[in-house]
Every structure is written in structure tokens, then in C-alpha cells.
Amino acid sequence: MVKVEFLGPIAREPMEVEADSLAELSRVLFREESIRPWLEKCAVAVNDVMVKDPNHPLKDGDRVSILPPVCGG
Amino acid sequence: MVKVEFLGPIAREPMEVEADSLAELSRVLFREESIRPWLEKCAVAVNDVMVKDPNHPLKDGDRVSILPPVCGG
Amino acid sequence: MSDMELYQGPLDVKAIFGRWLDEEAASNYGAFTPFIGTVREEGGIEALSFDIYEPVLRSWFDAWQEKARARGAKLWMAHSVGDVPVHTSSYMAAVFSPRRRVALELIEEFVEDFKANAPIWKYDVIDGRRIYAEDRSTPMEGAGVLELGKRNEE
Amino acid sequence: MSDMELYQGPLDVKAIFGRWLDEEAASNYGAFTPFIGTVREEGGIEALSFDIYEPVLRSWFDAWQEKARARGAKLWMAHSVGDVPVHTSSYMAAVFSPRRRVALELIEEFVEDFKANAPIWKYDVIDGRRIYAEDRSTPMEGAGVLELGKRNEE
To answer: Mean pLDDT over residues D133-141, rounded?
Structure first.
């Protein structure tokens, strides 16, 4: 199980997902109506490290953060 | 007569010169041993306005400032 | 005192500026280039509001601090969390460097990358309500990494 | 208070910064980019020293203020006259602008042109003696306008 948290304006509680890669996780997330519109604009961090490989492997206990478009300053 | 003043590190008192153009003034200045080495690196202001035309006319009472290389900050 | 500071509410710009100056007073830097971002009164907002994801902001900042160090320079940064009323400041950054070229180049590069990649979310506060500033927001570097799931669903 | 300030000796950086901030507190600018130049301890100097020709500096600055205004921005500047000991500051400049791009671009352009064209002469102070910093100095725009005299003499 990996824990998925949604940051900033995505009004969604964290969820627990069974997935052994980012690709697999993304298939699960795209089935969720409330999350789907965000996903193509979002970046991802696994255990607080930014990840750019869509096939990045996940292991039990990983924490995945979904980061929507930003605007600091 | 125009008044010529030497700014910054040029250790030279102001002088009064008879000249009706910058070109004429520059011929006079180039004859002065202590000024000559400065002149090709210097810019010129007439009555506090920067002048870039070597034939700029001068009239009686004009104040000519000789500005050596700068380094503010 | 850390070189990346987060504050609840608006920044005390003079105090932070003064402290950075004091911290580096003996460091023999010749150029100091701060950037201060202030909330403008426009579009009927009463404040901006910010969410920050600190762990990723910290690693983003630390990577920049390394880049600065490699060029002989040092970075400082402060940002607000929560509501920041109009005409008060939410963001300060600064470069100290031996020479002016590095300071001027680095503050520009840092601030631009900050806008694009710091994990901070901005909201307009209008009539006490927080509205995500979606139109001014930018997908971070690496956005789209979840597209594979979409393609597989189609 | 003028927007171009000359001071005998080192600048009180915090006081000047604070005053500029206060002056523009209600101007609704979103970005504020100061530049602060500090005297580095190097080459055995105890201080730098400066001569300024104020009338030409004033017109140079006023022309820049016009350029800034045309881009919706505002400039401030302060500089020392006379001796400025190591680790104290001799130069401050700042841009206030509605938007960050203009502020970042303008402070860089302004500071670079300042170095090249502001009528200020710098001296190293070593053992109490003032030595013109000739090797770091740059002929101003328009230098060479007196070359005609040389050619005519040759």
C-alpha cells in the first residue's frame, strides 16, 4: 500500500492505494472523477523527492504527493 | 573665453581658454603635458550636458568639464 | 537561524532585511541583491493566501543554495503561509555575492525558477473566501508524469 | 526627500532601505528590487573613496527615472562621497515596479549603466593615501570626443 496525498487546492483527503509503480497508481487515480481533471497538470513527489519517470517503482509504505500548478511570491 | 575644469583624479586647476569649438579646445589641451595622457579616455560635458560631437561649438562663458574614466559603486 | 524562513502571515520586511544584512556583515560580500514581493491591490482582493509544501520547498531551496555556493554566492529566502493583506509582503529572496554580475544574474534566475517550481499555492481572498489563483499558476517541472494512466484508460 | 541621495561617508543601509519602503508603501507596487554595494576587504585597502560630479550624475539619473516611468516603474538611488571603510556600503539602488519582470530587468540595466556612465571616481585608500582605481575604471560613453585635437597635432 502507498499513501497518496493531494496538495494545495485539490480538495481531497489522502488515500491508500495498492500500486507497485507510478504508472499503476495513475491508472487508479484517473478513475476518480474528482481527481482526474487535475492530473495532467500535476507533478509528483515520492517520499518528498520529485519524480519524473512515469514508470517509477513504488514500494509498500511509500508516500506519494500530488502537486498541482504553483504560484509562489 | 571658456572655463575648463578637470574632474576626479586629474590633478589640475581649472583653466580659461580661448576656443570657439571643442575641436579647437582639444588642440590647446593636447599641448599641455600634464593633461595629454588623460584626454583620449575622457568624456566631455559643456554646461553640465554631455557632448559627443567633436566639433561642438563653444561660446563665451561656456563651462567645459573633462570627465576621466569612472567607477561608481 | 535558517536561510529559508516561513512565517504565518505577512513578512516584517525591515526586520528580515536587517537580520540578513547583520548575518553577512563580516562575510566580505560586495553585492547584495534582495527581491521583495508585495501584494497588489487589484481585482477586488483583500489579501492573497498561500499553502506551502515545506519538505519539497526545502529540497528545492537547498539545491539552489548549492548552485549559489558553486558560484561563490549565498541565498536567503522568506515566504508567508496563510493570509497576506494587500500592500504587505509575502516573499523575500536575496543573493549575497563577492561581485555584482553573479548577484544580479542569480537573483533573476532564482526568482524565475521560484515562480515556476517552488511548491506554493496561491489563493485570492475575496469577501473572506479563498479562491485558487488557477489562471496565474504554472504546472511544475515534471508535470504530466501521470499521463500514462490517462493513455491506458483511453 | 529626493530620489537620488548623496551622503558623506558610508550609507546607513537599513535606514535608507526602510525609508524607501515607507515612501512607496501605498504606491501599489508588487516588486521591489534593491541592489546594495559594499566595500570588500581586498588588496590591503582600508577604505574606498569617491568623488562625484553631481550635476551630470543628476541628469544621468533623471534620464533613467524617465525610462523607468515609461515602464511603470520608479527608481531610487543613494551613493557615498568621500571615504567608505571596508565592510560598509557605498551604493544603493532600487526599482519599484508593479510586476517582477520589469523590476528584475531594470535593476540590472540600471546598475550596469551606472558602472559605465555615472560620473563617479573611485580611489583605494591604503595607509591613508588615496590611489585612483584606474585599472577598474571605464571611459564614459562619448569618451574620445577630444581625439580630434590629437590628430591635428600629429
So the answer is: 96
Q: For cell 559605465, name the residue.
A: D116
The partner residues of D138 in beta bridges, in order of sequence, read B70
Our answer on whether D and C touch (3+ beta-carbon pairs < 8 Å) is yes
Which residues on chain C are in Cβ contact (under 8 Å) with D33? 33-36, 107
Place A11 in a pLDDT band, splitting at 50, 70 and 90: confident
Domain-located, residue A11? yes
Model confidence pLDDT, tens digit, residues B54-72: 999 999 999 999 999 999 9
C18/C32 Cα distance (integer angstroms): 12
Domain count across chain B: 1
| Full-model pTM | 0.95
Q: Which domain holds residue A20?
A: 2-67
d(CA D115, CA B72) in angstroms, rounded, equals 6
Distance, in Å, from the CA atom of A21 to the CA atom of A57, rounded to the nearest integer, reads: 4
Number of compact structural domains in chain D: 1
B17 in a structural domain? yes
Cell of D49: 573613496
**CB neighbours of C81 closer than 8 A, spacing ≥ 6?**
C6, C7, C8, C9, C50, C51, C52
- Domain with C10, as residue range(s), is 4-153
- ipTM of the complex model: 0.94
| CATH (domain of A12) | 3.10.20.30
Q: What is the dihedral of CA C115, C118, C120, C125, to 10 degrees?
A: -10
Position A18 in a domain: yes
Residue A73 lies in a domain: no
* Interface contact flag, B27 D123, Cβ < 8 Å: no
